[in-house]
Amino acid sequence: ARAAYAAARPRSADLHRRATEVMPGGNTRSVLAYAPFPAAMQRGEDCRLWDIDGHAYLDLCGEYTAGLFGHSEPRIHKVLHATLEGGINLAAVGQGEERLARLLCGRFPSLERLRFTNSGTEANLMALTAARGFTGRNTIMVMQGGYHGGVLTFPLAGPSPATLPLPFLPTPYNDSAEATRLARAHAQDLAAIIVEPMLGGGGCIPATKTFLATLRALADETGAVLIFDEVMTSRMSGGGLQARLGITPDMTCLGKYIGGGMSFGAFGGRADIMAQFESKVPHAGTFNNNVLTMAAGSVAMGEIFTAEAAEALYARGEALRARLNAVGEAAGLPLGFTGLGSMMTVHFRRPLPDRPYAATAGEEGLRELFFFDMMAAGLYLARRGMVALSLPVGEADLDRFVSAVGEFAESRAELLR
Ligand code: PMP
């Protein structure tokens, strides 16, 4: 499958070879660095993509959740063009910034005040800075298998790869007893507990409500700041996964689709914590309020991805996941999808995992094969087997994906067993 993938993409192979001469690894996004080389895309339209080798795809990757609106949402294109007419970035505050901030504070229960950044990574770095400043403490409880950005990535076991020199306290995800033990042991110096309410990069593993409620109680008990990284999960309802679960953190980080597809990040929360930015804690950033993101984000969140649209997308995703899981169950094969709503990741084990796990070499091989088989069928997923539905994906597209997974189960049954 790998050889067939490579043979069908000589232009992508050539681009990759040239790119490695000027960029280590051949590009600047680690998720797009996979063997033998990534397929290079030429063009996108609604939920379709065309690569430089002449293949067409249904885009189920959804730009790792940032592509919620697809590649050509007319209302977003229109506001971007209109904004460009008014001039690119004006080194000044503008109405778009206030509008988008008000929209987001009105939607996410924990957001009393917020500030914009250019990425989810920055949003998380700033939230951690705010928590440390507010508490006067240092230790940060993080989840093993969690991901909060390039320099905030935490392995399941062993030391982190080159990351920040902060006193991180790695904690097993969905293990309330261990989280309680660790938080109490470090209570004096615990500044923050940061958690994805569903692990995204870690395999679309939802946190149990009990686990998040435990973290909420531990933050209250120790005086630490509870931070939900909702960079990916904010799409789970009009007010994010926090509103769906009814658990309100002290701070929330946002990113991805909220800027309508432009570079985006935001962090915010309790007014008393955020008040530090009035004077004590600096937070500059040339592009924080860039006019394109502010304008596209306002239309995206104010007019397109309304709370009703968020509920509808959630329901579509749940229905799709049930159909996909019926495929593996009917065939009696260890093939299924975890996730919530419109985000899901394939796994090759039964029962489906409820915690992050270290995959065996066999599972890694199946994951690669699944990716290549989907590419051959004209379906573009994240290399790790993650799907993030975008709004333009239609029912016929979903049918096509379900049949492709069915064909995979049939043709690869021997390997899966
Ligand atoms: N947090 C989570 C949960 C993410 O999934 C990501 C990106 N995949 C980030 C933070 C980092 O966001 P960005 O890539 O915009 O820096």
Please outline what is shown here:
With 417 residues, the protein is α/β, with parallel strands linked by helices. It has helices spanning 2-7, 10-19, 74-85, 95-107, 120-135, 176-185, 209-222, 240-245, 271-274, 291-304, 307-331, 361-376, 395-411, 413-416, and strands spanning 41-45, 48-51, 56-59, 113-117, 139-143, 168-171, 190-195, 198-199, 205-206, 225-229, 251-255, 265-269, 336-340, 343-347, 379-380, 386-388.
Give the secondary structure arrangement, pairings included:
Blueprint: H1 2-7, H2 10-19, E1 41-45, E2 48-51, E3 56-59, H3 74-85, H4 95-107, E4 113-117, H5 120-135, E5 139-143, E6 168-171, H6 176-185, E7 190-195, E8 198-199, E9 205-206, H7 209-222, E10 225-229, H8 240-245, E11 251-255, E12 265-269, H9 271-274, H10 291-304, H11 307-331, E13 336-340, E14 343-347, H12 361-376, E15 379-380, E16 386-388, H13 395-411, H14 413-416
Parallel strand pairs: 3-15, 5-6, 5-7, 7-10, 10-11
Antiparallel strand pairs: 1-2, 2-3, 4-12, 8-9, 11-12, 13-14, 14-16
The structure holds 4'-deoxy-4'-aminopyridoxal-5'-phosphate.
